[in-house]
Amino acid sequence: MTDPGYPTSLGVSTEATISLLGEDITDLMGSVGFGELAYWLMTLRRPSPGEARVLEAVLVALADHGFTPTAIAARLTYLSAPDSLQGAVAAGLLGGGSRFLGVTEDCGAFLAKVLERHTAEVPSSDDDTVGWDELGRVAVREAREAGSYVPGLGHPVHKVEDPRTPRLMAIAKEAGTLGPHLRLFGAIGRVHEEVLGRHLPLNGAGVCGAALADIGIPLAMLRGVALLARTAGLLGQLAEEQRRPVGMDVYLSVDRHATYVPPEEPRD
Fold this sequence. Notes:
By secondary structure, the protein is mostly helical. It has a domain at 103-214: CATH 1.10.230.10. Helices cover 58% and strands 3% of the residues. The chain has helices at 25-28, 34-43, 49-63, 69-80, 85-94, 103-117, 129-145, 164-175, 180-196, 204-214, 222-243, 247-256, and strands spanning 11-13, 18-20, 23-24. Strands 1-2-3 form a three-stranded antiparallel β-sheet. Helix 5 (85-94) crosses helix 11. It starts with 10 loop residues before the first strand and ends in a 12-residue tail after the last helix. The mean pLDDT is 93.
């Protein structure tokens, strides 16, 4: 029997060469951008210039957002183990869940399911604003009736508008990649208030998920793109922690303000 080996379409090394995606790695070095390479690795095809531009915009949008829980976790882990940079980065990435970073995946998957479930109602024209708005109402109503929420709707800081959302929408339009996921997400932004009775902004993580779905990133990889972007942000946070440490101050502030309270009485 012939040994099938361990097949891969990615990287293969010999004593003298390294190939990546079927190309000599020395030919790729200096000629392929990192975002383009990430897209190629995930989809096994090179992105178009428009797709590459949108991916790069997403990576910038998700890299850093201040002292978020992921950044604080990374800094405090570095405070405890300054000899383990990788541990601090990992600690920050482990916080990428349903409230932070994971919304990118959740929103893309939500939009994809709506589009699949209501294939017959998807407007045939991209410019059919009325049709997209109606599908947006359907999506919001279904989420409300199911007792769930629309991923990508609302933000703890940006209460009126997340500045990343209109910019990424504009970039996608300029790049020719504004597809059904972004159009549905935009429609949800326009109509949700009449269904929910309050205004919530379309957040940056959500619009990134919609944009990534439109450029062909597999849904199961959307959170990975968010984590890739945040890795750069965490490296920046940790470099700043080395230059201007605040981890000890954060720790002492919480510790010195800890107040003992008796445990609640068990309920019958």
